[in-house]
Write a structure and sequence with these properties.
This protein is an alpha/beta fold. The chain contains 14 helices and 13 strands. β7, α7 and β8 form a beta-alpha-beta unit. The two termini are 29 Å apart.
Length: 363
């Protein structure tokens, strides 16, 4: 799962990314590495792993991970190659979802690229560049579809009609993800690599002293825009995230308690990102390793097994499944089995979040 962090200059994007990478390095059980200079990998917070570790005393704990890509800054004209526009747009194509950091604070010491804070204008600036890039792409696709349509194939006629409707939607200044698409039309979207199809999570970056009070009007503006776009919003303070990244687990919890917060902004972003992409985790547990595996909601047992190894899917026999809560209440796996809480599931079983699974297979 790759989340691309985007935003205008001086909105807190780099501060947030730096906090993310430091957090990944600072937490002992949270794997961190840098794949490229601008990519950080951090663990998905999951308290269930700690509880399972206490039960199994494993040699290793492996959480699910998420990649954050610090995408090059954007300026007006990026869709035409201005600034680092081409790099910016190419990097966005490679991510699964966009974390759009929006400045929702006033600070005379931090100059805004357009002179003053205006979340609506900032969001429009980035959305417009993405829409313009998509329009250029759709012009080529529409032209190709119209040429194929001349052969009389009804499939290409329907495709061209959909492409025309999508192009008009973009020309109206609306992102592709807000277009109502029928089940049949979804077939035409499989190979459309549109930037504005990607789900968006707005990270409203506020001053640290506003975290525990009422939400600033700037945040309400972001929420209104997000609602129209079917996007999500997380309120953060990039400065606080940077401070939290310097602390160990115990100090971090005390700091969050002092702020009246249940979780950090980074944790909120990760959880929201999971929901945004329709993801969940199942777990495997034993004395060698306790591990979380990321799958899409609705995944069946054999395909989930394939996340571990392709042989598990190819030779799938059954899945022995116990609910996390049932296991914790039972105290041990053996007691859960005695109570009949360990189920044997077949190829059609749809995995549930928090399933603890032992896959049986034969190749």
């Amino acid at each position: 799962m790759r989340l691309g962090i985007v935003g205008l200059p001086n909105v807190g994007k780099s501060t947030l990314f730096n906090a993310i990478t430091k957090a990944g390095a600072a937490v002992a059980n949270y794997a961190f590495c840098t794949i490229e200079p601008n990519v950080g990998v951090v663990a998905v917070p999951d308290s269930r792993l700690g509880s399972l570790a206490e039960m199994y005393k494993p040699e290793k704990i492996t959480p699910a991970t998420i990649e954050f890509v610090d995408i090059a800054g954007l300026v007006r004209g990026a869709s035409k190659g201005e600034g680092l526009g081409n790099k910016f747009l190419a990097n966005i194509r490679e991510v699964d979802a966009i974390v759009h950091v929006v400045r929702c604070f006033d600070d005379e010491d931090v100059m805004h690229v357009d002179g003053q804070t205006d979340p609506a204008r900032d969001i429009e600036t980035i959305n417009l560049e993405l829409i313009l890039s998509d329009m250029e792409y759709m012009d080529r696709r529409l032209d190709k579809a119209r040429k194929l349509m001349k052969g009389g194939d009804k499939k290409h006629q329907a495709e061209a009609a959909f492409f025309e409707r999508l192009t008009q939607h973009l020309e109206a200044g609306k992102p592709a993800r807000t277009l109502e698409i029928s089940e049949e039309e979804k077939n035409y979207c499989d190979d459309l690599f549109l930037l504005t199809f990607k789900p968006v999570l707005y990270a409203a970056n506020i001053n640290e002293d506003e975290l525990s009070g009422p939400e600033p009007d700037y945040v309400k503006t972001v929420r209104d825009i997000a609602a129209d776009e079917k996007a999500e919003v997380v309120v953060i303070s990039a400065k606080i995230e940077e401070e939290l990244s310097m602390l160990d687990d115990e100090e971090k919890q005390l700091f969050l308690q002092d702020l009246g917060l249940e979780e950090s902004g980074l944790d909120k972003i990760v959880h929201a990102g999971y929901d945004l992409l329709g993801l969940m985790s199942y777990l495997t547990a034993g004395p060698q390793e306790v591990r979380a595996w990321t799958i899409e909601k609705g995944t069946k047992a054999p395909q989930a097994a394939g996340k571990i190894h392709s042989d598990f899917e190819r030779g799938f026999i059954r899945a022995e499944v116990v609910n996390y809560s049932d296991l914790m209440a039972s105290g041990t796996y053996a007691h859960a089995r005695e109570k009949g809480l360990v189920r044997s599931e077949g190829k059609e079983y749809i995995m549930q979040d928090g399933d603890i699974v032992l896959f049986r297979f034969n190749v």
